[in-house]
Amino acid sequence: MRRTYRVALSAILIGLPSAGMGQPAESARPFGTLREQADTQQRWLASRITTVLPALMRKYGVDMWVIPMREYNEDPVFTSLVSPTTFAARRRTIYVFSMRGDSVERIALGGSSQGGVYTAVRSTQAAAGPAGARGEVNAELWGDEQWSALRRVIEERNPKTIAVNVSRVFAFSDGLSAGEMEGMREALGDKWTSRFVRHDGLALDLITTRLPEEAAFYRRMQELAWAIIDTAFSRVVITPGTTRTQDVVWWMRQRVNDLGLGSWFQPSVEVQRRGVTEAELGANPVIERGDVLHCDFGIVALRLNTDTQHMGYVLREGENAPPAGLVAALLTGNRLQDIVMSEIRPGRTGNEVLRSSLARMRADGIDGTVYTHPIGMHGHGAGPLIGLWDYQGGVPGRGDAKIIPSMWFSIELQATSPLPEWNGQRVRMALEEDMTIDAAGANAWALRRQTGFHLVR
After folding, report:
1. What is the mean pLDDT of residues 302-310?
2. What is the fold of 210-456?
3. How far is CA 76 from CA 130, 257, 414, in A?
4. For the chain, what percentages of helix, strand and coil (3-state, to nearest 5) are there?
C-alpha cells in the first residue's frame, strides 16, 4: 500500500467515529452522498442503454427483446436496466426493446420511465383514487390488460425475432420465469411465440459490459479496498498473541458498514504457521508472530463489486521483513498472475484461457490452480469462467462463453511453494486482483497487484 493512499484514507479507516460525536458526516462518505452516487449511476444507465444495447441487439440479430418480471422475482438483467432509485419490479414490469434503425425504442409496460430512459405506458382506465399525496388520472397496467398491451406493441412493430431470457447454462440469461412464459404464450399465441429466440450472450454481454467512466470509479473502489486490508493486517487491528482471525473478519465487515458501503460475501481471514497443520490451527486461531495471513475481501458501491485476496505476514521479534522464501513464493504467485492476465483476450473462451494458462504454468514449474471469474455488477459476474478451484479440466458451458471488450475479471488463483525457512513446508500464495479490459481489448489492473506482504509489526 503506497503511503499516499494510506494517508488519504487514514481518517476514514482508523477510529471512524459513530454518529453524534461531532465529526462531519462527509468524512465517512468516501464516494459522496447517496444522492450524488445516484446521479452518477443514472448517467451510467443512460449511456449504457443508448450505446451498448443497440450494438448488442445488432450483434445477435434481434429485432425485439421482451423482458417481463414480477416484484421480488426480478430477471438478473434487472439492475442493468433500471435507475438506482428502483429496487424492485413494479407489480409486473415488462421491458420491451425494439430496433428502430440504428437506435432502440425502449418501452416500460408497468413501472416508471426510470428517469426518462423508457416510455412508460399506463392503463387507459381511470384510477380509483389518489396514491398518497399524489393524484394520478390513469391506473397502472394490471393483469390481462398488461399482456394485451404487450401484444399491441408487438403487432404494431411486427418483429421477425423476439429474444427472451431462457437458458440452461447461464443463470444471468435465464430470468424468464415459468409463470411469465405461460402468460406470454397465452396472450401472444403461436404467431408471435414462434418467433421467440434465445441468445445467452445478449443478457450476458449487457450485464458485463462496463463503461470507461465506471472503470475510473472502480479504481477508487480498489484504493479503498486495499486501504481497508492494509489497516486490517496491521497493529491497528491485530495484537499478536491476542487477536483471533474472526476478530479481523468482523473488523473488516464492520468498517465497510460504517463507511456506508455494502458487502457481497462474508470476508475471511486464514493463517498458515510453521510446523502446524490446518486441522491443528482450527477455525478461529489466535494470530501469532511468524504467521502468514490471507484474506478474501470485497466491497459494494454504486452496484459495482470488488474481490480481493491478499497475503500478510506477522513479523517475529527482531525481524523487519518477511523471510526470503516467502518473498520468493509471492513472486511465484505474481508470475502466475502475469500468465493468466496475458492469456485473457477478447474472442477467446474461458476454457481456452484456462488451458493455455495451465500449460504455461506447468512449463514454468509452478504448482498452482486457476479459478478466475468475471466481475462488475455481480461479484461472480456474467461471462466466461476461467476454471473452478476444484475443476481444472475446464468448465463445460459456463467456460465456453467468449471474452468481450469492456468486461472485467477477478484474476483468482493460488501458487504453492516449499519454504526453506520452514523446513520445506508448503505454503500457498492465494491471490486475487481485479482487472479491466477496455473497448480496444487492452488489459490493465483495476489498480495494481500485490507484490509485497502487508506487515504486522
Report:
1. 98
2. Creatine Amidinohydrolase (3.90.230)
3. 32, 25, 30
4. 35, 25, 40
Mean pLDDT (whole number) for 184-198: 97
- pLDDT in the model for residue 14: 52
Task: Please provide the DSSP assignment of 287-342 as one string.
Answer: P-TT-EEEEEE--EETTEE--EEEEEEEPPTT-SS--HHHHHHHHHHHHHHHHHHH
Q: How far is CA 15 from CA 27, 254, 338, in A?
A: 12, 12, 37
User: Quick one: pLDDT band at residue 403, thresholds 50, 70, 90?
Assistant: very high
Task: Measure the CA–CA gap between 14 and 295, rounded to whole angstroms.
Answer: 19
The neighbouring-strand residues paired with 131 are 134
- Extract the C-alpha cell encoding 347: 474472442
Residue 449 gets the label, from left (phi > 0), alpha (psi -120 to 50) or beta, of beta
In this structure, the strands spanning 64-70 and 162-163 are parallel
Mean pLDDT, all residues of the chain: 93
Q: Is the dihedral of CA 20, 22, 28, 29 positive or negative?
A: positive
pLDDT level of residue 130 (50, 70, 90 thresholds): confident
Q: What is the pLDDT of residue 21?
A: 38
- Tens of pLDDT, residue by residue over 367-401, are 999 999 999 999 999 999 999 999 999 999 999 99
Any idea which residue has 461472480 for its cell? 380
The span from the CA of 114 to the CA of 81, in Å, is 9
CATH number of 34-206: 3.40.350.10
pLDDT value at residue 138: 84
Q: Give the tens place of pLDDT for each residue, 18-33.
A: 433 344 444 589 999 9
Burial 185-224 (b: 16+ CB within 10 A, else e): eebbeeebeebbbebbbbbbbbbbbbbeebbebbeebbbb
In order of 87, 334, 449, the CA distances from 338 in angstroms are 39, 6, 10
Q: What stretches of 244-286 show up as alpha helix (H) in DSSP?
A: 245-258, 278-281
Q: What is the pLDDT of residues 212-264, one digit of tens each?
A: 999 999 999 999 999 999 999 999 999 999 999 999 999 999 999 999 999 99
Question: Which of 391, 447, 387 is closest to 412 using CA atoms?
Answer: 387
Q: What is the pLDDT of residue 132?
A: 61
pTM score: 0.92
**Residue 184 DSSP code:** H
C-alpha cell belonging to residue 440 = 480496444
Task: Kindly list the domain boundaries of the chain, sorted by start residue.
Answer: 34-206, 210-456
Spatial neighbors of 305 by CB under 8 A, at least 6 apart, are 264, 298, 299, 375, 376, 377, 378, 379, 381
Torsion of CA 29, 31, 33, 37, to 10 degrees: -160
